[in-house]
Task: structure prediction
Amino acid sequence: MAKDAILFRPREKDTTSGITRNTLRRLAKLMDVAESEVIHRALAKYAHENLPRYEPDDGPLSDSQHRSIAAKVLRQHGEAKAIETLFDDRARRPRARTESVRATSRSR
Result:
């Protein structure tokens, strides 16, 4: 047995937090895999659904960071006017599908 192996002890009856050995066998047969593979797949699915997929950030942006972002937007998009923001909690909250970033129209 591997040095870092763990013991899996099935429950005596199926519950919302555990399964019996019989249920594990039935799942393995249904999936056509070994019982240990059923456990691995269940844990992988649980990890995928519950663990964050990114590192936590450093908290709210500073005023300096807000100004830097605004300057970069101005350089990239010229006269575009931001009417909503993802970064500034002080800004009013936009209504769904009614507001967006609009660029000034240019004649062709």
Notes: The chain has two domains: 1-55, 57-108. The chain has a mean pLDDT of 82. Helices lie at 21-31, 35-50, 63-77.
